[in-house]
Amino acid sequence: MRNDKATCALVTGSSQGLGRAIAEECAGRGMDLVLAALPDTGLPEVAHIIERTHGVRVEVVEIDLAAADAPALLCRRLEEKGLRVDLLVNNAGVGYNSRFGDSTLGQNETTIELNVGALVRLTHMLLPSLKKAGRAWILNVASLAAYFPMPYMPVYSPTKSFVLNFSLALREELRGSGVGVSVLCPNGIRTNRGNRDLIDRQGLVGRLTCLYPDEVARAGLAGVFAGRGVIVPGLANRILRGVSGFVPRGLYMRVISHRWGKLSGAAAKAAAGTPPRAALAAAGA
Hints:
By secondary structure, the chain is α/β, with parallel strands linked by helices.
């Protein structure tokens, strides 16, 4: 059954994890897809599975969106294929779980360029065509980390705070334009085995706050089409967001530092042998 809202979605970072789950959720709603992700991450195989399962058209663009010219190249591909996107999902992102002093400059620059730069460029370039669509949507993927300074993830969390505030500001600017803007703020996401092992080490906290990609994807798409500005999947996570403004900063900073400091060594081991861009922080969000 065709979706009575969006008809074609562009999903970045869609070869695995949450991005793949969002792509599959969109296809299940009858949308054609443009999937963008890094080369050599299995994107063509993902596209083939989705096409075969859901009977939708899927175009693949293997590209490194952290490169300054990549969003323009992606938009050019859309024009060449004659594709009109009416749902933009800015999901591509990366983060590293370590002390700032132990990180590399390249890791931090990539985090900023991908999480912030690529999202802003792609949104700006596609906004005119989204407005022309009559009815269109933007879903930006942030994180619950957007609400907290994060020791051991000191660059990642500010980039997600930017995504949150940028999305809300853009939502207000576009009010009445026919383009809806939502921001998805998940906590931990159970993606690959190493990631799941890290989450399981968090004990009860991990079990209460960390969801599977398909759960987050369903919540995200439901929130977009319900017109919600901020989407926080999971009751426990909504409670955490709610208390973030009332709990003394010193208290939650100590809790965060203990939790993520303890996991930073485990995250480094789990990421060993994994392509750097895929070595997301333990949250996976």
